[in-house]
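Two quick folds needed for the group meeting slides. Do the first one here.
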Amino acid sequence: MRLVLITGISGSGKSIALNVLEDDGFFCIDNLPVRFLDDVIGALAEAGHERIAVAIDARSGDSVEGLRESMGHLARRCHDIKLLFLNARTEALVQRYSETRRRHPLSLRLSREGEAPTLIEAIALERELMSVIEDLGVSIDTSDLPPNVLRGWVRDVIGAERAPITLLFESFAFKHGVPLDADLVFDARCLPNPYYTPELKPMTGLDPPVAEYLRAIPSVQRLIEHISGFLHAWLPHYLHENRSYLTVAIGCTGGQHRSVYCVEELAREFRRIEHVLVRHRSLASRMAGGS
């Protein structure tokens, strides 16, 4: 049986992720209290369901701390179990709630003497409640992601082969902020920028002329070699901690040239020894906006 647990911060896209899995044939349950998880999954397995997705968050008033223990029990009974933690910056969440005009799920629970907490207070408390399980699976920062990009990334993660560790190499733009899902962050803004070469400006690090330009610069190759050396040295330690995903984020100013090239080069190298996924945040948003 394949079991996918979807959790994270309210407003970060859990409903989108659950709908993706439902469209892909998973039996989906939303807002299931943790204390019922073992029994419900056991009953569904006995009923013959082979692919199940469950969304778990702070709405039920149930403590999510028990999820770690429940996942241990379920891992011994399931062939494959994955947890997806969706997150977003507070300003992005505030904008989404403003657009939908919906209450935060914790606002009614936290009301004191008829006075509801502010949206910022509710988000802050939910972050505190959910922080105890953030390290259990792969995290995705949805702050700047259009829904169709998030759908694709969810399918990539859920469809990834089971491996001792999956390396997610991610390029991003510092002008949009460091991704919340990054485990390791490297800064490529110190490298020469193809943006200031007129014929390269409209291109990206995926285009051969940009790649050739950057490949010829010694400092670019040294940075890639140093990041590679760091990962080769420390990956065994992450494996020792039973990590299943490690997100390596490389940023430049606009997330278009230098970081994209570095990510592609590192992904090409590490595909020989580990399972690798690649994300280009700024390029994904730009292509989605133009489609």
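Then this one, please, same format:
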Amino acid sequence: MQENKQEKSPIKQRILLFLAKKEVTQYEFYKNTGVTRGVLGQNNGISEENISRFLAYYPEVNIEWLMTGRGEMLADDQATHTRHKSIDVDKHPVASLATEPGKGIPLIPIEAMAGALTGEQSVLEYECERYVVPMFKGADFLIPVKGSSMYPKYSSGDIVACQCVPMSDLFFQWNKVYVIDTNQGALIKRIKPGSDEKHVLIVSDNEKYDPFELPISSIYAVALVIGVIRLE
């Protein structure tokens, strides 16, 4: 009599494939995502809640690939970014210095970041270079990344494009990277839900930096990071 042995769901198999590619252990996966320990080892399906937890922590995964196996493992924006990195920048510049007054996106120095977020007139006192970057439509300003807290997503010296978010209608897209002006200064961090509605969790991609909660009342201005320029 042949035994009807249940096999691992294709979605679980693809999650395991992704973790192997990223060299993430199952222990790290359960710890980071909050998925119940041992789920990936069971020969059955996986719940919508656990799929959501996986995608929330690993937003670079292509959802179509995860659910159906079609397409690339990484999401379109990641694949596009990889393709841009392989382009000869001398022949195909992704950014060019603006030649007309008022054109392009201003590159704000670190010390003026808070002013750029709040729209203070003092930012205009800086003689900011402006760049035309066709792929960053809707960006309000560019700023350089300083430090290693968001490595490997962003490295020190990268330039990120930011789009201001009105404080009057503040809505966070969980797990996205934002520039926020706080009572601790300007920060470039990933934002996740806090312990209650009055707090958010501030998360660095670099595991050497511990996450911490911040009262929403301590946030003075917010901008969503919509792209990056990286010099190889």
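Slide caption for protein two: The two ends are 61 Å apart (CA to CA).
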